[in-house]
Amino acid sequence: MWDPEEVKRKASEDFEKAWVEYSSALSQAKGNVALKEKGDPHPLEELRQDVRRAFLKRGFEEAINKTIIDVSHVFMQYGPEAPVILDRIYYLAGLERPDIGLSPEKKREIEKIIPGFSGYEKLQEILREYREGKIEGDDFLEELVTKLKIKEEQASELVSKVFKEFAELKPVPSTQTLRSHMTAGWFITLQEVLKKRFTPVALFSIGYRFRREQKEDARHLRVHLGASAVIAHEDMNLKRGREITRSILEEIGFKEIEFVKKKATSKYYAKGMEEEVYARHGKRKVEVADIGMYSPIALSNYGIDVPVFNLGMGLERIAMIKYGYKDVRELVYRQALAPFLLTDHEIADHIGIHRQPSTSEGRLLAKSVSKAILDYGNARAPVRYKAFDRDMGKYHVTVWLSEKEEGKSLCGPAALNEVVVYDGNVLALPPGGGAFQNDLVKTALEKGVHTKIFFRDAMGCYAAWVAENMKEGRETVQFKNVKSASDINIHVHPLVQRYVTAHKKRLSIKGPVFVTIEIEKERI
To answer: How far apart (Å, rounded) are the C-alpha atoms in residues 47 and 226?
Structure first.
């Protein structure tokens, strides 16, 4: 519907003007959108639901832990290990709201944008309320428009041209962080829950963890989906935790489970009570989870006085094993990184005739021209055949097919070609293959998708479109040696063009057509 390069150019010249212009383009869409009967789930979300059901089935209660956590909790949980843990944590920063005054210079700039503006007292009130947090950033423009009774474009110009303080703001770091593991949130949750509940307390949560990886590759992402659970009870121990872990993993398809004590225990676990969990997948063992008993020191920092078992699973790793992915990026970002594949039917559905008539008389003209090419295309010149002769609204239209050069056919040999799609190739083929009887042509005609898009129909539609849009008088439409789809009034979707190029297939809509169409239009 629009050219992205042109849109970007116009937006860089005058953003507001381009914004209004291209926003109005959206109103042309008719909303005739039909979706599939059933959507396709993401494999990671499918696994998430399997794991969720496994926890619920075993008596766990679902919880949502905090995502934003103060860095002080890292020290409360990790103790002396905390400083080296901080390297993998994302700190949050924010912009301080500016104190904007209305200097004489600013007032002059405002009046250039809004001639005769006098609402400075109300404007200063809006700026003050914004600074105090009474107006949110995404509501600021709306406040300017509604309270000052100005246009939306004027409000945007005030922000970009007058209140330049907004663009000069710099992020200010805070002590708030994004959780790097679900445990960071469990201590905070349990601190409150155990004040109100008798044990056992069994909770699980499935959510994202954020780690400042140096790079993302086939095995590492900066955002991970983790499933984690805790059980708090006076008699809870690691042995019982293993039994529950084994049961959950068996539920999601892992039968041979092995627990291996970690050589170096994380400080939020009790010494020697952290284990990695391996499952057999084919001929190899892969790590699928981590379990352990929380350290009494870390628990005491939150006023917790009972043993707590923890289980954590990285769902991307498990999904890679279950669904056969070798690259975690292809699993998680499957839509963006999926192989570029189109079926022949999808390709065929996105090839069509470009210019088409809009009236019933025009459509009749198009069919008449197409039929004339089919019936008389082999007639020898000199020849002039009347293909259409009737009224179209307030005009009388006559259409001829003509060829003057003696000995030539009325139409060239490619005039009857049809567009056929086979194995990603887009080919314009004559009925029966004509003189091009190679293996690709033969197989395409036999097994390919016949689009029913014929050169003769495309030419007829173009002639009808011209007849509908031309003024009184005469016009001649000529189709010569076609070298591309646009030469014959056929449109190939850009995605199809990219696919053909990317897969080194053929986009061959060409051939000697040599059709001359004369159109005469007279007011009745």
So the answer is: 11
Q: What are phi and psi of 171, to 5 degrees?
A: -60, 140
Give pLDDT tens digits for 300-317.
Answer: 999 999 999 999 999 998
Report angle CA 48, 51, 54 to the nearest 5 degrees: 150
DSSP at 380: B
496 vs 502: CA distance, rounded Å? 10
**Distance between CA atoms of 102 and 109, rounded to whole angstroms?**
10
Report which of 260, 335, 321, 323 is spatially closest to residue 291, judged by C-alpha positions.
Answer: 260
Provide the token pair at 54. 């496994």
Question: Quick one: which of 488, 487, 485, 483 has its CA closest to 496?
Answer: 485
* Nearest Cα residue to 310 out of 480, 150, 167, 187: 187
| pLDDT at site 326 | 85
Q: Does domain 43-91+176-336 have CATH number 3.40.50.11810?
A: no
Give which of 241, 68, 233, 92 is closest to 174, Cα–Cα: 92
The CB-side HSE value for 191 (13 A sphere, CA atoms) comes to 17
pLDDT tens digits, residue range 427-478? 999 987 666 567 888 899 999 999 999 999 999 999 999 999 999 999 999 9
Structure tokens at 102: 């209305």
First to last CA, the chain: 37
Q: Which amino acid is at 164?
A: K
Q: Among 358, 355, 500, 362, which residue's Cα sits nearest to residue 421?
A: 500
Closest CA to 297 of 272, 267, 273: 267
Domain ranges of the chain: 43-91+176-336, 97-168, 346-523
Helix (H, G, I), strand (E, B) or coil at 406: coil
